[in-house]
Specification:
By secondary structure, the protein is an alpha/beta fold. It is built from 7 helices and 5 strands; from the N terminus they run E-H-H-E-H-H-E-H-H-E-H-E.
Length: 142
């Protein structure tokens, strides 16, 4: 695997669960064993963390923090936000919006972050993300 793997919030949330699903656990361990570069983009951390905080899932928050220590973390920066704005506008111009017009639209921010590292997005939402970046279901990436 030559491209870095950029985790969307779906797979990241599953990995943050204290009793990780055995399928995603095996997938994740295989990636690491094979030397894949796995990245947590800040927008995915935000989406997962806000839900965990809302539900007061302290063990999952601890696990998310542990993942941030062992994986690469990609902060949101100005270039990513500017690119996300372009992606958002382009999607609407071609009639393929990925969210409500008033929503922040985390998908375009995730896509912009992944573009910064020429990454492959591991997701459960290929439809929206594939408009902007290479995206595949997490369980199809090896």
């Amino acid at each position: 695997m030559s491209k870095p793997i950029v985790l969307d919030s779906g797979p990241l949330g599953k990995l943050a669960h204290p009793r990780v699903n055995k399928d995603i656990k095996l997938w994740f361990e295989t990636l690491l064993k094979n030397g894949a570069i796995v990245i947590i983009p800040e927008i995915a951390d935000y989406e997962v963390r806000r839900s965990l905080l809302h539900e007061n899932l302290l063990k999952s928050i601890e696990r998310l923090n542990e993942l941030k220590k062992i994986l690469l973390y990609l902060p949101i920066n100005t270039d990513a936000i500017l690119k996300a704005a372009e992606l958002w506008a382009e999607a609407r111009k071609i009639g393929k919006p990925t969210s409500d017009p008033h929503a922040l639209d985390g998908d375009v921010i995730l896509a912009a972050q992944a573009l910064q590292v020429n990454g492959l997005v591991a997701t459960e939402n290929v439809g929206h993300l594939s408009l902007f970046i290479e995206a595949r279901p997490w369980n199809e990436i090896f």
